[in-house]
Amino acid sequence: MSGLDPGQFKALVVRPTLLRLGLDGPAALNLLTGTALAESGLVFLRQVSGPALGVFQMEPATHDDCWASFLSAHPALADPVRAIAGMQAPSAGLMVSNLGYACAMARIKYYRAAAPLPQAGRAAGLSAYHKQYYNTMLGAANAACNQQFFQKAIDA
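The structure corresponding to this sequence follows.
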C-alpha cells in the first residue's frame, strides 16, 4: 500500500504548520512526521476499526478536549489554528480533509505534555514520547516497534 511521501509531507505540511503556530524546531518536526507515519502510515484518513481521524489518527473526543480545555484559554495559539482550519469553530471531521489542521491539532496535543520534547535525532526517544503523550499507555502503539517510523521521519 502506498501513501504520501514522508519527505514531502515533512517539508510541505508539517514544517509550514509548525512555523505558523510558532511551535517549530527539529524535534517537533521529526516528532510530528513520525507520529503520522506511526499512526496511519501516511495512508489512512480514517481509523480502520475506530473513531480516529486524519493521518495523525486523533479521536474526535481528543480534538474536542483540546479546544474546550486548552485552546479556549490560549487565544495566541487558537488564532493560528483557526487560520489553518479556515474557520472559527473547526470540527474534528476537518482533520480528514485538511492536513495542516490535523497537524496543528496533533502539535497542540503534544504541546500540552508536561515533559520537554525529546532530542530531534533520537528515534527511540521520539517513539517513547509518542507512546506516552500521544497514544497513551492504554493505546495500541508499541514504542519499540514504532521506532522505525521515527527513524524514517528523521531521515526524510
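The CA atoms of residues 68 and 86 lie 19 Å apart.
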